[in-house]
TrEMBL record, chain A:
It holds the Pfam family BPD_transp_1. It comes from Azospirillum oryzae. It comes from the Bacteria. The chain crosses the membrane at residues 44-66, 107-133, 154-177, 209-228, 235-253, 273-294. This is ABC transporter permease. Its main location: membrane. PANTHER family: D,D-DIPEPTIDE TRANSPORT SYSTEM PERMEASE PROTEIN DDPC-RELATED (PTHR43386:SF1), OLIGOPEPTIDE TRANSPORT SYSTEM PERMEASE PROTEIN APPC (PTHR43386). Keywords: Cell membrane, Membrane, Peptide transport, Protein transport, Transmembrane, Transmembrane helix, Transport.
Automatic annotation (TrEMBL), chain B:
Residues 97-328 form the ABC transmembrane type-1 domain. The lineage of its organism: Bacteria, Pseudomonadati, Pseudomonadota, Alphaproteobacteria, Rhodospirillales. InterPro entries: BPD_transp_1_N, MetI-like, MetI-like_sf. One of its GO terms (molecular function) is dipeptide transmembrane transporter activity. The keyword Transport applies. Belongs to the binding-protein-dependent transport system permease family. It is a multi-pass membrane protein. This is ABC transporter permease. PANTHER family: D,D-DIPEPTIDE TRANSPORT SYSTEM PERMEASE PROTEIN DDPB-RELATED, DIPEPTIDE TRANSPORT SYSTEM PERMEASE PROTEIN DPPB-RELATED. It is found in: Cell membrane. It comes from the Bacteria. One of its GO terms (cellular component) is plasma membrane. The chain crosses the membrane at residues 103-124, 136-159, 197-221, 255-274, 305-328. Keywords: Cell membrane, Membrane, Transmembrane, Transmembrane helix, Transport.
Length: 306, 336
């Protein structure tokens, strides 16, 4: 039995690591496997991956995992220290902090996903178009990018939220609006390195339209460095969103957003420290996870970065 | 005339960037769901005075004319009046800015004093445990929510250990005892010869500036490491070693001397980001600077103050970016 699994896995490994892949799928899987083996050797990066996966699992299973309802108040048990019933203690309304943190993971994941789905995409489109067409298109787009790059991000995000009104959606919009320029720069740089390549000329001579070349040939080549940068930025996004929540501009009570939870625990911090300490710890662990993961991914996907 | 041409290009870039910033603050001011006429007149204005005020504020003009008017006002130093303090915003901003400057300056000095040696040490121990430890510490520094760290530091060093004073710039009974000449309490206390107040202010600075500075340590250390590794690969380093110079001299004199210019750029850039990043630190430590001013105005929907403060931070941010660029060109012969 054991012997058979061994030969089977050896067969798989050989199929994945062969120098002469028989199909496109095999080549792709082989490259992914090579990346994974390199990534696996970086223990910190694997820890980061596990933290991020844990965030996803906790967010998905929040109602199952949370021992109490996140909004259930119990005024007889307010500000209770960590105990067997309330592992991380209770807040000023007697709500279970652990349960609120578990449900708050959903908000964090939502913010991260929304920003990651918008800002890098906008940057990718702007950067590839500018790099591919060159000339005045490039000049105009990159001037705008440079100007936006020189703005103070956090303060502008604050001003945007102040204008749009507090709330988690507006916080996401403000963060996305202020964070696209670096992605445009990266995408343009990657585009410039490939746009004179022979395979692009070949595609053009076969009659492929600019749209087709950008979408089908250039954008896929920019994705690796954009993923690395996005992952590294996600820690910053989490911290900014938490900062907005802390200032009362992000998610509004009673939503269990981690930054807002710290703000509500602030007035008790000298006596009932756990109310503010626990959500901060959660923010720290999750953003450390993204930082470790991004750092490891950079080594695997973008060796030039070091 | 390449220098002149480059100078002109730089000037145009800066002007365009500032104009872009003005456009953004202008547009933010337009999308606010607060009616500027009503906030100037009060809710009970009748239709006639409403229309009059509207014309007076220029709100009946096309958008681009309103923008030109706005740019003209800002260039004359008119950032509007704060609803909260009923003083001109510029006056308010100038009053609170020195506090932010003081905090960010001490923070960036701390950041450079820790970050540069850490980066050099990481580079000379590349791939070994000090390198990994410094890299991990950097990642940790970039993962901690700064406002939370501030609260926890107050809890530990102020409430539990009593090593540091509480929030604020000086103890309550020293408040307002020195004349604000520069607005920087430590400097003002020295000017007034009040050494006791000076030391009190220094003690109040330690915690917030250390926490703010922590954020720049990671960045400065990482950049130093990168620059240093580039230098240590070069042949002149081998020559210096072969000549018999001590390793300390090779690393700290020869190599570090050659990366001084890009390092200054990096430090100037982190200075800019610390000025901006002080918003959250100031809120936690009740530090009466620009960040606290902006957040207090935000919470009372005082848009003139928010946008005026944003504009000033933005302008300083852009100026520091420009300064680091200029320094680089001036000091590095290769960039000339």
């Amino acid at each position: 039995m054991t012997a058979r699994t061994d030969t089977q896995s050896a067969g798989w490994r050989e199929w994945l690591t062969t120098d002469t892949p028989q199909s496109r799928a095999q080549a792709r899987l082989g490259r992914a496997w090579a990346g994974w083996t390199a990534f696996r050797r970086n223990r910190l990066a694997v820890a980061g991956l596990l933290i991020v996966l844990a965030l996803v699992v906790v967010a998905a299973l929040a109602p199952v995992l949370a021992p109490h309802h996140p909004y259930a108040q119990d005024l007889n048990n307010r500000l209770m220290p960590p105990s067997a019933v309330h592992w991380l203690g209770t807040d000023a309304f007697g709500r279970d902090i652990l349960s609120r943190l578990i449900h708050g993971a959903r908000l964090t994941l939502m913010i991260v996903t929304l920003v990651a789905a918008t800002a890098p995409l906008a940057g990718l489109v702007i950067g590839t178009v500018a790099g591919y067409f060159g000339g005045w298109v490039d000049t105009v787009l990159m001037r705008i990018t440079d100007i936006a790059l020189a703005f103070p991000k956090l303060i502008l995000a604050l001003a945007f939220v102040a204008a749009l009104g507090p709330g988690i959606e507006n916080a996401v919009i403000a963060i996305a609006i202020t964070s696209w320029p670096p992605y445009a720069r990266i995408a343009r740089a990657e585009t410039l390195t490939v746009r004179r390549a022979d395979f692009i000329s070949a595609a053009r001579l076969q009659g492929a339209s600019s749209l087709r070349i950008i979408l089908g040939h250039i954008m896929p080549l920019c994705v690796a460095s954009l993923i690395v940068r996005t992952t590294l930025d996600m820690a910053g996004v989490i911290l900014t969103a938490a900062g907005l929540g802390f200032l009362g501009l992000g998610a509004q009570p009673p939503l269990p957003e981690w930054g807002a939870m710290i703000a509500s625990g602030r007035q008790y911090v000298l006596e009932q420290w756990w109310v503010a300490a626990m959500p901060g710890l959660a923010i720290f662990i999750v953003s450390l996870g993204f930082n470790l993961l991004g750092d490891g991914l950079r080594d695997v996907l973008d060796p030039k970065g070091d | 005339m390449p220098t002149l041409k480059r100078g002109l290009t730089l000037l145009v870039t800066v002007a365009a960037t500032l104009l872009g910033l003005l456009l953004v603050t202008f547009l933010i001011g337009r999308v606010v769901p607060i009616d500027p006429v009503l906030s100037a007149l009060g809710d009970r204005a009748n239709a006639e005075s409403y229309a009059q005020m509207r014309t007076q504020l220029g709100l009946d003009l096309p958008l681009w004319q309103q923008f030109l008017r706005y740019v003209g006002d800002v260039l004359q130093g008119d950032l509007g009046t704060s609803v909260l303090t009923s003083r001109p915003v510029l006056e308010d901003v100038l009053r609170v800015f020195p506090a932010t400057l003081e905090l960010a300056t001490v923070a960036v000095v701390l950041g450079a004093l820790l970050g540069v040696p850490a980066g050099v040490f990481a580079a000379t121990h590349r791939g070994r445990w000090p390198d990994h430890a410094i890299r991990l510490l950097g990642l940790i520094g970039h993962s901690v929510p700064i406002f939370w760290l501030g609260l926890m530091a107050l809890l530990l060093f102020y409430a539990k250990l009593d090593w540091a004073p509480g929030p604020g710039r000086v103890d309550v009974f020293y408040e307002g005892m020195v004349d604000p000449v520069t607005g920087i309490v430590t400097v003002d206390a020295l000017l007034a010869g009040e050494t006791e107040i000076f030391w009190n202010a220094v003690q109040h600075l330690v915690l917030p500036s250390a926490i703010l500075g922590l954020y720049s340590v990671a960045y400065i250390a990482r950049m130093t490491r990168g620059f240093m590794l580039d230098q240590l690969r070069q042949e002149y380093i081998t020559t210096a070693r072969v000549k018999g110079l001590s390793e300390t001299r090779v690393v700290w004199r020869h190599a570090l001397g050659n990366i001084a210019v890009p390092l200054i750029t990096v430090i100037a850039l982190s200075y800019a980001s610390l000025l901006e990043g002080s918003v959250l630190t100031e809120t936690v430590f009740a530090w009466p600077g620009l960040g606290l001013y902006i957040t207090n105005s935000l919470l009372s929907a005082d848009m003139n103050a928010v946008l005026g403060g944003t504009l000033v931070v933005g302008a300083v941010f852009i100026a520091l970016n420009l300064l680091s660029d200029l320094l680089y060109r001036l000091l590095d012969p290769r960039a000339r």
